[in-house]
Design a protein that fits this description.
heterodimer; A: 107 residues; mainly beta; Immunoglobulin-like; five-stranded antiparallel sheet; 11 strands; 56% strand; globular; B: 116 residues; six-stranded mixed sheet; four-stranded antiparallel sheet; 10 strands; 47% strand
């Protein structure tokens, strides 16, 4: 059974700081997704990672994939308040989600 | 263009009643998925439609749950004899091509179901 684990589950940061969210999955998968969810809202697609070593960046967010380690990271650079949200990684076509990381960025 | 739409946005029902939830996928998307999100279980896959193929129902939690997709577009998720544990947000997603390199799933706003 495919399992996806994120850590940390809760993260409180100061603006301007850098941090990384980790996503581990238990069995081989050829794709990994990162989504963002704001309170009371649906899921917004951030990144799709399709191959080992893939790296994608959008603004202050950068995602990478290591299929051999079954690990993806979401790196936040110089955080700003607008990035406060819950971030989910998901694996496989019938998406198996991690628990989500609730990110709070304080001024 | 228009995104995935779902209706109703909120549904409150009494235990034992049947409910129908609707999803309109993005035009041209051949794959359609249903998920649910609850505090206790997180985000869970329910069912998946791809074109005219038989749906993958492997995530449905019980035989009270069923779904259909008419004309390869609109989908309806039906829950019969609702129970309190069915309370959750039901999310629909669609993608242009399932299993391909352009299969990012785009999610609708969800239907919040509350079973009293």
């Amino acid at each position: 059974e495919l399992k996806v684990e994120q850590n940390p589950l809760f993260l409180s940061m100061q603006e301007g700081k850098n941090y990384t969210i980790y996503c581990n999955y238990s069995t081989t998968s050829d794709r990994l997704y990162w989504y963002r969810q704001d309170p009371g809202k649906s899921l917004e697609s951030l990144f799709v990672l399709l191959s080992n070593g893939a790296v994608k960046q959008e603004g202050r967010l950068m995602a990478s994939l290591d299929t051999k380690a079954r690990l993806s990271t979401l790196h936040i650079t110089a955080a700003v308040h607008d990035l406060s949200a819950t971030y989910f990684c998901a694996v496989a076509q019938k998406l198996v989600f991690g628990q989500g990381t609730r990110l709070t960025i304080n001024p | 263009g228009a995104g995935v739409s779902q209706s109703p946005s909120n549904k409150v029902t009494e235990k034992g009643k049947d409910v129908e939830l609707r999803c309109d996928p993005i035009s041209g998307h051949t794959a359609l998925y249903w998920y649910r999100q609850s505090l206790g279980q997180g985000l869970e896959f329910l069912i998946y439609f791809q074109g005219n193929s038989a749906p993958d129902k492997s995530g449905l939690p019980s035989d009270r749950f069923s779904a259909e997709r008419t004309g390869g577009s609109v989908s309806t998720l039906t829950i019969q004899r609702t129970q309190q544990e069915d309370s959750a947000v039901y999310l629909c997603a669609s993608s242009r091509l399932a299993g391909g390199f352009t299969d990012t799933q785009y999610f609708g706003p969800g239907t919040r179901l509350t079973v009293l």
